[in-house]
TrEMBL record:
Similarity section: Belongs to the acetyltransferase Eis family.
Protein name: Amikacin resistance N-acetyltransferase Eis2
Gene assigned in the entry: eis2
Source lineage: Bacteria, Bacillati, Actinomycetota, Actinomycetes, Kitasatosporales
Residues where acetyl-CoA binds: V83, G84, V85, R91, Q92, G93, V94, L95, R96
Domain spans labelled N-acetyltransferase: 1-193
Gene3D superfamilies: 3.40.630.30, SCP2 sterol-binding domain
Subunit structure: Homohexamer; trimer of dimers.
Amino acid sequence: MEIRPTTDKDLDVFVDTLHAAFGRFPETPAEDGSGVWWAALEMDRCLLATAADGRPVGTAGALSFELTLPGEILTPVAGVTTVGVLPSHRRQGVLRAMMRHQLGELRSRGEFLSVLLAAEATIYGRFGYGPATYAQRLTVPRHRAALALPRARGTAGADTGSVELLRRAECGGILEDVYDRYRRAQPGALSRPHRWWALGAGQPPVSPAPRYVAVHRDAEGVPDGYASYAVESGTLTVDEVIATDDAVFTALARFVLGHDLVTQVVFKRLPLEHPLRWQLADFRAGQVNEVADWLWVRLLDVPRALTARGWFTDGELVLDVDDPFLGQHGRYLLTVRDGKAECVPTDREPDLSLDVRDLGSVYLGGTAPSTLVRAGHIRAHHPGAAALADALFRAERTPHCLHWF
């Protein structure tokens, strides 16, 4: 078997092999190649595994994004995607070889973080990835969708902005601009490069699929939020709500929840700690139908990754990190002062021992280290170590990712 990088000439073979791996058939792109999710592929970052006779049997790729870390810090990140192996060649080491090759390439490019969306939860942990952001699907019956009046004294008054209803094709650069403002302040969010919007590569509202878009504008008429949705068989399904603050989200939620001639409103991916259920006059009206992992994170360089993000509690922690897939091990002293961290090798006794996948899960602040201690995955070497780790790794907001890739 050979694993080789691809070029633009390999696009059709790459796409066909990937679809065959999942038992699907490619959609038909527009004449200019746009309107399909693979239009945004970076072929110089893709790999093709071929059998001894030259036939393609596996694919893997990476995309270039920015990831927002705690502290509103933007960092380049590799988005691993298009990973597949033909059914005829599974369980023969093809996937393992491609993942090992890819991790080596990412490191050679100087990247210290990679992320992915996992088709199955049991695949990528063994390669060092851990689930780091989560989302819930919330369904609200239309007849129980009234919002309660805020009870807190001093709560801001009525929204001074406005909501305008547009079709997806009419939105121009509004969605791109609003999303970019949002993702820069949201830990766990990924950038959506301009070419994704231009090529319609992805899921709605990035894709050109027909959608209605409720655009919120502030008092000066500047767009600061949107909700993309479609109605089918009496269900209004919201692809995503992007809002620069909670008041904007509330205005957009009120708009979609007040839609006539629908029986229920479904919010596809809300953060786990989102306040919408508390805003409903009937708390039980909001039904969580599904809670799922979304963004998985892998640290390729532990010291660089830990010093890249922002921190909100001072302290010291010795981490003993094992990376069994790459056959590496390191012990690091993490020292946090005034929002900045230093991370250096140390011989001190560890506070926590953990797999690199578990470090990926806690890295963005979406998974408490104490949860993984209780689950038996992280070992706390003394009382208080887990609580200190919880305090150190927390983020200013629940990390959340909406981008599909």
